[in-house]
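Practice record 12: protein with S-adenosylmethionine.
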Amino acid sequence: MTESTLDVSSLRLEREFVHDVYDNIADHFSRTRYKPWPRVERFVDSLSIGSLLLDVGCGNGKYMTIRKTNELAVIGCDRSQSLLQICRQKQLESVVSDCLNLSSFRPQFDAILCVAVLHHLSTEERRRKAIQQIIDCLSIGGKALITVWAFEQNKNGSQSHYIRKESQKEPQIHSKTGLCLHVGGTAFTDQEVLVPFANKTHLRYYHVFREGELEGLVSGIKSAELEEVFYESGNHGIVLTKTRFIQ
Ligand SMILES: C[S@@+](CC[C@H](N)C(=O)[O-])C[C@H]1O[C@@H](n2cnc3c(N)ncnc32)[C@H](O)[C@@H]1O
C-alpha cells in the first residue's frame, strides 16, 4: 500500500469509527464523563495562576473546569461538533480543530492536556505527528500531559477497574474492517480494536498502547524532553517539557 492510500484508509477509518461515532454519542458520552482522573487533576492543579491551558480533544470539557473560574485561561479543541456544542452550553471557550493540525494556535501555551485522544489515531505516523503538533503549541518551559488507553489492563499485580469479565477465547473479527471486535470489560487480545459503546450499536476504533510505546513516539523529537512516564488505572501517560523552538 502506498503512503497516500494508507492515509486515505486511515482517514476513512477514523471518520467512520471515531469522528462520526463521537458526534452520534455525544450526549450519552458526556453523561458518562464527569469524574476527572487523579493524575490529570494534579497536573492542572499544579499550574500557576494565570497560566494558559489548551485541552486537545477536550470532549465535553470536563478538564476545563477543574480550577476556579479566572484562575487559568483555558481553551479546548476537538473534532466533534456535538461535543463542542456541549462545551459551549457550559460557556467554555472551545474551537473545532483536529489534533493533527493545531497550526491555528500560536506557540504560547504554558500547559497542554491531551487525554484519551491519541489512541484514536490509526497509524504511528499520525500519532507521532499529533505529539509534534502539541509540542509546537507550547511556550518554552511549557508542559504537556498526554494519556492513552493501555493494552496492559493488569499491571504490577493490580487489575484496572475496566476488567469485569473473562476474555473471550476466540475474538471475533469485524468483517468490514478486518479489525478485532473487542468485548467490553475484558482484557485486550489485539492492539487494533473496535470497542462497542454502551448499547453496542456504536463501535469506536482504538489503538491500545503497549508499555513503552507512548514515550517511544517522543524519541527523536528535539524540541521537548520527557519529564515523567506514568501508568494510572489502565492508561499510559507522559509529561513533556518544551525545551526549544525548532523551525
Ligand atoms: C475518549 S474522548 C476523551 C475526551 C476528553 N479528553 C476526556 O478525557 O474526557 C476522545 C476525544 O477525542 C476527540 N478526537 C478524536 N480524534 C480527534 C482528532 N483527530 N482531533 C481532535 N479530537 C479528536 C473525540 O471527539 C473525543 O472528544
